[in-house]
Sequence to fold (368 residues):
Amino acid sequence: MLKKIAVLVTISVGLLIGCSDNSSSDSTSSQTSQTVWEQKSQMLINWADNFIIPNYQNLSNKLSELETAVTNFNVTPNNETLESTRLSWLEAYKSWQHVEMFNIGPAEQTFYHLKMNVYPTATENIDALIASGDFSSLDNSPYNSAQGFPAMDYLLFGIAADDASILNLYITNPNFSNYLTEIMDRMVSNTNYVNSEWNNYRGSFIASVENTATSSANKMTNDFIYYYEKGFRANKFGIPVGIFSGGDIFPEKVEAYHNENVSRLLALEAMDAIKTFFNGNGNPSLKQFLDNFATEEMLGLSSDINAQLDLGKSSIEGLDSNFVNQLNNDFLGMAITYDNIQACTVLLKTDMLSVLQIATDYVDADGD
Fold:
């Protein structure tokens, strides 16, 4: 439903609501401001302790399991160790969907996310690096798309036409195993750094409750919406279906392109992560903040957001497990799914930010 953009509550500590100089009004405003401050503080604690830190730790654990599988595969490349590595890659990739939105603090400072999931992967760069045996170029940002989960997708599924041919490459050319190990080491090292740095960063993160462009609440809320709009809506759906390119479809730009069978699974995992973060698992959250501080005109906003997220999830569930097949056989289904996901962008980016009194801190080049 259409909603008015309204100034609802004061977020910054110490700024009073209303213009009256009546002492009773001042007292009420001060109490409201304190309540807002306390809920923001509790929300940041919930985000740090129940979402960001445990999800990074879970990813670190999954990558350790993948690292073991990669080591076993490189020592004994056969069908069994290849399949074990593939399964561990998928489990780690699923856990990644729960941290990609947290591009704040140590992750932002080290450009961590750009080293983990830029797709489509640059297969020509990977092939050239393997041929040379020199992997030092991976330190340079133009090679971000030659590493991370998408690069491993190519190395485990796409470097040859079938499993026998893939195994033959690893058996006959050590550079393939060396490159797989290099990618694995970087993923583990980069993740462990971000994970460990959160022990130091947590204190300043949860203490930053003021309403400024650089405060934790404002930045994390913006990062969440940015991820929903760009990392989820655009990258997983809009770009492959041609929303931003005049209608030309790009099946090769779907997530996990070389695996050919898990793009829907990863998208659903990401949607679950989005909805869980918004609702807070029963703890102080964006949903609770909206419910507690929305005026009458905005009552029900959190329900509208959840309903639209559910519609987006239902649309994803109706797609082919392989988004390449979906695009080639029924791209309209993908376009409808994009539209359902896009509808929630407006609720989050316009209506929710209005309630929170947070300004958008990134440039939107999509015109929506």
Residues 23-75 form the longest helix (53 residues). Confidence is low (pLDDT under 50) at residues 1-32.
